[in-house]
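Q: Structure tokens for this one, please.
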Amino acid sequence: MSRVERLKRIAIDPHISGGKPMTTVQIFQESSQPGGQVRYRAIHRNHQAAGATPGAALDALEATLPDDAGTLVILQKFKPDVHFGTEQQAHLAELMNQLQTARARGYDLTPKQMVELEALINLELQATAVRAEAIYSQAMGR
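A: Here is the predicted structure, written as tokens:
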């Protein structure tokens, strides 16, 4: 198994916690409510909950999950780092915005833009795998 394959396996393996499935949760900031209040929504499969903070949304969601669900919380702030730098992140954000605008108007990006976007997504996936391997190694005391 190549290093990249091993990294991808670590990044997506749901049984990495001693053979026990881990719960994957996504937390999204919702649009501001009238009065400027921001809400957060935590989602896991068909479960979801909202709260005034990411932690409150996570706590509310956790209360709906089975007692035997493993819990590991990793916060990724999506800031530039040594694995995926400032220019790459800015270009990815620019292309993602262009894609959303294009689709809202009923058209697609150019083939060149799509190739660039897919390449950046793959680089970010590899960076995520490297970060996951580092977290795993730290958790295992390596």
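A few notes: Helices lie at 3-12, 54-62, 86-104, 111-139. The chain is about 45% helix and 10% strand.
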